[in-house]
Write a sequence for this structure.
């Protein structure tokens, strides 16, 4: 089977695959800015509206690791085309939803059909590009992965402000139909070996239960005050038991629904660990910077989007060069450079203060883009390098699943730590402001124009802002060290880092 499949038009195939991925990744963040509007229109609270994000994330996380199983059963091309078409259909249904219940149902279905899209795109790109150009294909996919989440909030905000929220879903329909037709047409002749693996029901049920409840715990933990809530405790117990059963079962079953034996490959293990941790830290930055700009510095959501957007500039400019030349050097060096840059920008942010100007925030984002440009492609290439061609879809699904879960963990932990540390700092800063402190008394009198109560509440507001700022700086200091530590992880991988072209290709060159 060493004959390599070439689509009639490689460029068109790439556009079709990338558009579908762009649309799917964009959909993870596009709804974020529109939540208040959606909540208002459908008559639910802002808290309830966050289920629009949660429902998509939960079903997406469950579907990702099933990619390998579905590929063996239906073939990559057919699965991709159907997933993309169903994604367009569910997007349309999301747009015409009249109630929150309808929207959540269709968002859940949309997340489920979106699951296999990214891993299969990765596998199809590796399968259709000749080995010397594979780096290029992965670099392009990495750029899409980085730019789509940044474009999401800006595009979502603009569509919601100028049209209406259903359009954030309707725009997927023509894109999805176009992408699936192009890919179906271009990859028509691709030979695929299909098997009929039996369905591992124990694996499937424990996966759905374990991942579903875990994702709910992570999404709702902060609002429910973590383990002070019996709902969160029950969900956590269900999740822990289900995932323990899942792991034991999948490692002993002869035909597992998720192939955990992929971790026997050294590069896959080291690369996946680096990808998950780095993506979690990267996700924290992407979450915390816009939040901080809006809550502490007083930006609108659109301006917070603009201040964050320079992150995408360097990845777009460098993609071609990273793809073309990266494979000529040790990819571990490239990944280490990426982690150094990302760590460095975190340390820069740990010196931010409340009066900082737009230019400084945007410049640090711009520099972080250099780290992002050098990060995804080398790490993806390393983690896929010791898998066989028939393991790539499965491996990519498992890695993307863990990366998505890493993002969810990061989102929960970061927002929790930011608020928790701010509360501690508030207590420390406020302990000197008492009725018995003459300096505090005169400051309250002065600020409140003779009204100490008003002065006190003004001072309290200032302390709150400062305590959130100190907490922000602490978190970025910690994130900086996490990135530096990841340099050690990536050097656990061993060359050669060439993605295999098929069962006949040897890994020895």
């Amino acid at each position: 089977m060493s004959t390599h499949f070439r689509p009639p038009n490689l460029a068109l195939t790439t556009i079709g695959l990338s558009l579908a991925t762009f649309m799917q990744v964009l959909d993870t963040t596009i709804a974020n800015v529109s939540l208040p509007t959606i909540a208002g229109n459908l008559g639910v609270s802002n808290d309830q509206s966050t289920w629009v994000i949660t429902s998509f994330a939960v079903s997406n996380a469950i579907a990702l690791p099933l990619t390998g199983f579905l590929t063996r059963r239906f073939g990559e091309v057919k699965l991709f085309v159907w997933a993309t078409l169903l994604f367009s259909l569910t997007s349309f249904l999301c747009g015409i939803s009249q109630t929150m219940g309808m929207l959540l149902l269709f968002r859940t279905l949309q997340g489920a059909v979106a699951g296999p899209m990214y891993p299969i795109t990765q596998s199809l790109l590796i399968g259709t590009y000749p080995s010397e150009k594979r780096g290029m294909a992965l670099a392009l996919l990495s750029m899409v992965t980085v730019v789509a989440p940044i474009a999401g909030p800006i595009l979502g905000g603009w569509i919601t402000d100028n049209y209406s929220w259903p359009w954030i879903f309707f725009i997927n329909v023509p894109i999805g139909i176009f992408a699936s037709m192009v890919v179906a047409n271009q990859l028509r002749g691709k030979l695929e070996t299909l098997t009929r693996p039996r369905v591992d029901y124990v694996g499937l049920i424990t996966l759905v239960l374990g991942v579903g409840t875990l994702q709910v715990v992570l999404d709702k933990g902060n609002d429910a005050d973590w383990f002070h809530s019996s709902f969160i405790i029950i969900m956590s117990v269900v999740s822990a038991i289900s995932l323990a059963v899942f792991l034991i079962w999948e490692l002993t079953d002869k035909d597992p629904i998720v192939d955990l034996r992929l971790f026997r490959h050294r590069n896959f293990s080291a690369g996946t660990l680096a990808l998950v941790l780095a993506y979690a830290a990267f996700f924290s930055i992407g979450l915390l910077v816009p939040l901080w700009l809006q809550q502490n510095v007083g930006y609108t959501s659109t301006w917070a989007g603009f201040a964050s957007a320079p992150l995408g500039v360097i990845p777009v400019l460098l993609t071609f060069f990273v793809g073309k030349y990266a494979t000529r050097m040790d990819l571990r060096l490239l990944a280490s450079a990426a982690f150094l840059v990302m760590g460095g920008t975190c340390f820069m942010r740990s010196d931010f203060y409340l009066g900082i100007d737009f230019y400084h925030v945007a410049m640090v984002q711009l520099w972080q883009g250099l780290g992002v440009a050098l990060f995804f492609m080398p790490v993806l290439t390393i983690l896929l390098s010791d898998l066989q061609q028939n393991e790539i879809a499965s491996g990519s699904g498992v890695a993307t699943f863990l990366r998505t879960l890493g993002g969810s963990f990061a989102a929960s932990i970061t927002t929790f730590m930011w608020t928790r540390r701010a509360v501690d700092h508030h207590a420390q800063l406020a302990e000197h402001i008492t009725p018995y402190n003459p300096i505090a008394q005169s400051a309250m009198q002065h600020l409140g124009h003779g009204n100490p109560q008003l002065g006190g509440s003004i001072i309290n507001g200032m302390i709150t802002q400062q305590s959130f700022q100190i907490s922000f700086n602490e978190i970025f200091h910690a994130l900086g060290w996490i990135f530096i530590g990841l340099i050690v992880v990536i050097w656990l991988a061993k060359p050669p880092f060439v993605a295999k072209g098929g069962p006949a290709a040897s890994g020895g060159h």
